[in-house]
Amino acid sequence: MNSVRRRNEIIMDVRRTGSVSVDELMLAYGVSVETIRRDLRILDEKGIVRRTYGGAVKREQTTWDMPYYDRMQLNLERKEAIAREAVLLLEDGDSVFVDGNTTGLVLSRLIPADKNLTIVTNSAMVALNLVQKKGKLSVYLVGGEVGEDGMTFGYKLHCELRQYRFDKALFSCMGFGTQGIYYSKWEPLQIAQMMVEQSNHLILMADSSKANRSGFLFGMELNRIQTLVTDEGTPHDMRESLRETVRNLIVTSGDDQSER
């Protein structure tokens, strides 16, 4: 296992259990104490975990979000499974909004070129993935100031988005629970709330690392969302509660089978 995947799994362990020890991680991954200490030091420096004597614990800062390129590598296989399920929800003739989150970027790689879709996005990278397919897709990039993650933001973006109406909108969040979804920043929150009014079908793509996780900003209640696509890492008891709130819950698994 390479270092990036090992660190991603350590992040998931910390988020799931609240803490990890150096000894446990050495046994789990079959590496030296120096390797594990280096992993924990790197994750601490990035603000993802907090190192302790003999291990690390979870950081609970509601205003902090992991850098975009670090998030891109985190839970990648589960994001791909979620994106594959989300693609199946798209029908020929749909007008679709895809936000620039990391799962949206994965999704853009999987949308078939021969699908007759009109897609609007606030991500230059999502738009590039789509236009390179040279198929039936019509792609629109909404304007605004461009951030280092390739996403547009600001007043111009909001003005342009208000002109559209969508059949479906696919987006993500910082965290979700039975009460609703959460964000650490205003920009994705405002876009998600805008989609409530401008889309007929809201599709939330959220992997299990976001389950039972809150943020500084409350986005919306779950009953505003038509479909939630997550993975089997989301706790079973939470899934049962989600089924009572979300109209359509899709839970992906590692064997390409899905629970609906």
Automatic annotation (TrEMBL):
<protein>
    <submittedName>
        <fullName>DeoR family transcriptional regulator</fullName>
    </submittedName>
</protein>
<keyword id="KW-0238">DNA-binding</keyword>
<dbReference type="InterPro" id="IPR014036">
    <property type="entry name" value="DeoR-like_C"/>
</dbReference>
<dbReference type="InterPro" id="IPR001034">
    <property type="entry name" value="DeoR_HTH"/>
</dbReference>
<dbReference type="InterPro" id="IPR018356">
    <property type="entry name" value="Tscrpt_reg_HTH_DeoR_CS"/>
</dbReference>
<dbReference type="InterPro" id="IPR037171">
    <property type="entry name" value="NagB/RpiA_transferase-like"/>
</dbReference>
<keyword id="KW-0804">Transcription</keyword>
<dbReference type="Pfam" id="PF00455">
    <property type="entry name" value="DeoRC"/>
</dbReference>
<dbReference type="InterPro" id="IPR050313">
    <property type="entry name" value="Carb_Metab_HTH_regulators"/>
</dbReference>
<dbReference type="InterPro" id="IPR036390">
    <property type="entry name" value="WH_DNA-bd_sf"/>
</dbReference>
<keyword id="KW-0805">Transcription regulation</keyword>
<feature type="domain" description="HTH deoR-type">
    <location>
        <begin position="3"/>
        <end position="58"/>
    </location>
</feature>
<dbReference type="Pfam" id="PF08220">
    <property type="entry name" value="HTH_DeoR"/>
</dbReference>
